[in-house]
Amino acid sequence: MHKDIDQASLDLALQLTPAKLKGQSSEQLQMQTVTAVLLALGSNHDSEQHLMTIGKNLAELGKIKLSSALQNPDFTASLQQAKPDYINQCVYLILSLPMSLHKLQQVFKQLEDDCNRCRQHPASAIRQVTMDIDILLVQIENDADDWIVVLDRYPFKAHERAGIEELAVVSL
C-alpha cells in the first residue's frame, strides 16, 4: 500500500530542518528496495519534446502523475552570459516492479542518455541539458507508510516545492 503525498509528509519535507527530517543520503539508500519515488525533471533544450518522451518512458515503469511544467531562469545566468530557461516538472511514480535505488538511478541515467544528455561541456560553453532526472523523495519496501527525503536534494528548490505541493493533492 502506497501512502499518498499528504500534508504530514509535506510538513516534514518542506518545513523542517534536515536534522529533523526522516531522510537519508542517496548513499544510505542505495541497496534499499524502492516502491515509489517523487522526481524532479529539468530541461533547457527542446524541453517540450524531452519532457513528453520522459513522461512516456516513466509510465512504462509504473503509474505516474505529473505536476504542471514551470519555466525557470538558469540560476547561473548573468548579464555577461545569458542562458536558456529551464522547464521543470515533478513526477510521482509508483513502480510496477520495485527495485533497488541503485538500479533505479541506472534506469534514470539511461533515460537521460536516451534524450542525448551530454554530461561533458567545455568550460566556456552554455550547457544544453536535454533531460535531468533527480530523486527527491522515496518510499522503500519495508517502510511504505512514510516518505524518505533524499537529503542530498534538500532543501528543495522553489519549483520542486511547488511540484510536490501540487502532487500532494492527487492519488494514484
**String of helices and strands:** HEHEHEEEHEEH
Helix content: 25-40%
Please tell me the overall pLDDT.
Answer: 83
Question: What profile does the largest beta sheet have?
Answer: 7 strands, mixed
Distance between the termini: 11 Å
> Hey, roughly how much beta strand do the residues contain?
25-35%
Give the overall silhouette: globular
The helix tally amounts to 5
Q: Strand tally, please?
A: 7
Structural class: alpha+beta
Instruction: Detail the poorly predicted runs.
Output: 10-21
Radius of gyration using CA atoms only: 16 Å
Q: Any descriptors?
A:
alpha+beta, 172 residues, single chain
Write the layout of secondary structure elements.
Layout: H1 7-15, E1 23-24, H2 26-29, E2 33-43, H3 47-59, E3 62-66, E4 70-72, E5 86-100, H4 101-114, E6 132-140, E7 148-150, H5 158-167
Parallel strand pairs: 1-7
Antiparallel strand pairs: 2-5, 2-6, 3-5, 4-5, 6-7
Description:
The structure is a single chain. This protein is an alpha+beta fold. It contains five helices and seven strands. Strands 1, 2, 3, 4, 5, 6 and 7 form a seven-stranded mixed β-sheet that branches. Strand 6 and strand 7 form a beta hairpin. The protein starts with 6 loop residues before the first helix and ends in a 5-residue tail after the last helix.
